[in-house]
Amino acid sequence: MPFSFICCKYERLIDIKITFPEEVEERNVVFEKGLLHNQYQKKSEYELDEKGKVSFFKKNRNNQVNIWALIDITDMDRNDVLLLNDKFAEFWINEMTREEKKKDIRFTFVIQVDEINDYLQETFYESGGIFMAKHRSRLPVLYIRKHDILKVKWADSDSKYISINKEMRKELKKIYDDSEIESINS
Q1: Which of 3, 25, 103, 178 is the most exposed place for a label (fewest CB within 10 A)?
Q2: In the chain, where do the E strands start and end?
């Protein structure tokens, strides 16, 4: 399941300062607009009990399918990862065709929280890198609302999937506007 395996070996974590327009009340609206502007289609949205929601977006490109999940949650723990895996399974069954499931899948998920807690601290700072497999790539992103900081977890430079990881970071940069994410490729 995609949310369970974001850590396996050493990786780098970068902080990115983002500037949002003051008049935007909900930051997830900014993220969603960026995806829609880049030809992603919103495919489904699921409630996460009383804690928030997850929205899935999809775009087909040649022999790959790019999937994004925007996770808007008040506070995240290990049980929420299991719930997210269940919601991803629903999305996979309901929104992906048999042909799409055979393609190269690139999955970026943005976890949006008010503040970082112990679980997220452990997951993003103290654990290993991203588990990536052939035709199944992930890019975990953490957005901390309180500080307007985007934290991107990426593959170790020795990974055989580093080129795919770089492509996914370029897509992230494109979605969120070059001027706002200067250090994404550093």
Answers
A1: 25
A2: 12-17, 41-48, 52-61, 64-73, 104-113, 136-144, 149-154
Report residue 142: phi and psi, to 5°: -120, 125
Q: Where are the alpha helices (DSSP H) in the chain?
A: 27-37, 78-95, 98-101, 118-121, 162-175
Q: Are 108 and 137 spatial neighbours (Cβ–Cβ below 8 Å)?
A: no
Residue 119 lies in a domain: yes
State the sign of the Cα–Cα–Cα–Cα dihedral 94, 8, 51, 35: negative
State the total domains in the chain.
1
6 part of a folded domain: no
**Alpha carbon distance 168, 9 (integer Å):** 19
- In the beta sheet, which residues pair with residue 80? none
In a domain, 4, yes or no: no
Strands 136-144 and 52-61: unpaired
Sorted by sequence, the CB contacts under 8 Å of residue 84 that are 6+ apart come out as: 3, 48, 54, 69, 71
Q: Note the pTM of the prediction, 2 decimals.
A: 0.80
Question: How many residues in total does the chain contain?
Answer: 186
